[in-house]
Amino acid sequence: xxxxxxxxxxxxxxxxxxxxxxxxxxxxxxxxxxxxxxxxxxxxxxxxxxxxxxxxxxxxxxxxxxxxxxxxxxxxxxxxxxxxx
Length: 85
Prior knowledge:
Elements: E1 2-4, H1 5-20, E2 25-29, E3 32-37, H2 46-63
């Protein structure tokens, strides 16, 4: 089933249901296929799930930016007199 992106906006729920049922749903723009809606299949076993989680963790760790040091966090909460700012 080919549907234009403009028409898909109004029919998204129905298109998702059709894709879940196994029907191929292709979104088009100016007559050219651009996106296919397909159901996400469950991961088959625990080893595959672990591999996916490990990959996501590595990606997150690689993109994490260092934050402020917790050792000096009180400097932002209290003034020289020891009272809250």
